[in-house]
Write a structure and sequence with these properties.
- This protein has four domains: about 160 residues, no CATH class; about 80 residues, no CATH class; about 60 residues, SH3 type barrels (Roll); about 90 residues, Alpha-Beta Plaits (2-Layer Sandwich), CATH 3.30.70.
- The longest helix has about 30 residues.
- With about 450 residues, the chain is α+β, with helices and mostly antiparallel strands.
- The chain is elongated.
- α2 packs antiparallel against α4 and α9 packs across α11.
- It is about 55% helix and about 20% strand.
Length: about 450
């Protein structure tokens, strides 16, 4: 890379000789012993201090982000104490010795602080892989700067390069782009989540608009962060046209479902056809919407199952939204009584029984109609309204049927049910044959004998 090989070798030999001369001094041994003793002392003190501090940190309520940072710092109490002990030792030694005799202590203090920062950073980030990657990169870079070999390492990584059209891609560029991309995207996600939480607290906006604004803000921040990271390392964004073309081909062949669900999700948020909290039915799935995502809708059923239904299904298929305009839902209960009963009294008792059920709306009073004269019963339909369909439909129908049963039993109204009669025929010589006839009939009450 234009550097004379002989000069580089001579400089390296000079540095090695200086290092050997420095290791021969007794102050290197003194500093090494001090560093080891301070590290062991920090470990012992941390065992006593950490449980006490952790008990107080657990009292932090309502601030999960702050608690996460505090817990991450507590897990590194030994390194915090080690850095403090090194700083105190360095201050005392510089007051009685020359700065050259504390060089190793300075390096140890700088490395310990860098490691403390990197380890806490890796614990704060929720994504474990991203946290560890950023932590290691941060500590390695800090170590190279502290040891004074960052320029040499950068020159070596920059020498590992290959041309790509008009661009020159080196290992250093890829490394910088990766670190900056991870850092900026993570920061964009954090800011986007905070902005989304603030938007969700605005009661003036409808739930669909709040979700739409939050998603657009988070996606926009991530795109801007990616563009900033790539531009900061010298990547020409116009060179990504080939990549965008490849993505377009991929969308046409294999990602059309993903794009379709994403676009469907945006349409759902704009037309407000469904929103969180709505009770819906879709192809036998009955439940309420818990969350709207970019690709799917989370629907929770009465039995606790959570279905992740693609957004496209809510656009292309028939959906019953029980709470689209309001939460009132009308339910029907069919029943029949004996012909001996007075239909006027049956209608009155049925309405009173329905009003006795907690979830039946009294403002929208129930009604009962005679719908037909059946083979063995007078047929009725009882209609009533509820305002909380997410609490279930079968259970409220069951409660209304139980109320009808109790009311009819108290007032002597019979509910007919079918009976079967077997007629056995005797043979010509008095022997029983296998032939018999079945006669189906209905009574209002069971027979005796």
């Amino acid at each position: 890379m234009g550097i004379d090989v002989r000069t580089a070798i001579n400089d390296t030999l000079v540095q090695i000789g200086a290092a050997i001369d420095y290791t021969a001094t007794p102050w290197l041994l003194y500093q090494t012993v001090i560093i080891i003793c301070l590290f062991l002392a920090a470990k012992l003190v941390a065992r006593r201090v950490e449980p006490l501090l952790e008990g107080r940190a657990r009292r932090i309520k309502g601030h999960p982000g702050l608690l996460r940072v505090v817990v991450a710092l507590l897990r590194r109490t030994n390194w915090i104490l080690f850095s403090v002990f090194l700083l105190v030792a360095l201050t005392l030694m510089r007051s009685v010795t020359q700065p050259s005799q504390t060089h190793l202590l300075v390096i140890a203090l700088s490395l310990s602080l860098a490691w403390l920062f990197a380890s806490v950073l890796s614990r704060i980030i929720r994504n474990r892989l991203v946290g560890r990657t950023l932590g290691w990169f941060a500590w390695i870079y800090a170590a190279l700067v502290i040891l004074g070999i960052s320029d040499e390492a950068a020159a070596f990584l920059d020498s590992l390069a290959f041309p790509l059209g008009a661009m020159r891609i080196s290992a250093l560029t890829v490394l910088k782009a990766a670190v900056l991309l991870i850092a900026t995207v993570w920061l964009a996600i954090v800011v986007g989540n905070y902005f989304d939480e603030r938007v969700q607290s605005f009661e003036e906006l409808t739930p669909s608009i709040r979700i739409l604004i939050g998603k657009v803000a988070k996606i926009g921040l991530v795109l801007v962060a990616g563009a900033i990271a790539l531009s900061s390392v010298g990547v020409d964004l116009s060179a990504l046209t080939v990549f965008s073309g490849a993505v377009g081909v991929g969308v046409g062949f294999g990602l059309q479902k993903v794009v379709s669900n994403f676009v469907s999700g945006v349409i759902i948020l704009l037309d407000k056809s469904i929103k969180p909290g709505d009770t819906i039915s879709l192809e036998g799935t009955f439940g309420w919407i818990r969350e709207l995502r970019a690709r799917f809708v989370s629907v929770v059923t009465r039995d606790g199952h959570e279905y992740l239904i693609p957004n496209e299904d809510f656009i292309t298929r028939r959906v019953i939204n029980w709470s689209f305009s309001d939460k009132l839902v009308r339910l029907d209960v069919n029943f029949g009584v004996s012909y001996k009963a007075d239909p006027h009294k049956v209608i009155q008792l049925a309405i009173e029984a329905a009003l006795g059920v907690d979830r039946v709306e009294a403002d929208h009073g129930p009604v009962c109609w005679l719908t037909g004269f059946g083979e063995s019963s007078l047929d009725f339909v009882l209609r009533f309204w509820i305002h909380d369909p997410q609490q279930g439909l079968t259970n409220v129908r069951g409660n209304v049927l139980l109320a009808l049963w109790d009311t009819f039993k108290e007032n002597g109204i019979e509910i007919p049910y079918p009976h079967r009669e077997l007629i056995m025929k005797q043979g010509t010589k008095g022997a029983m044959t296998g032939e018999f006839a079945v006669k189906r009939w209905t009574k209002s009450h069971p027979t005796k004998g």
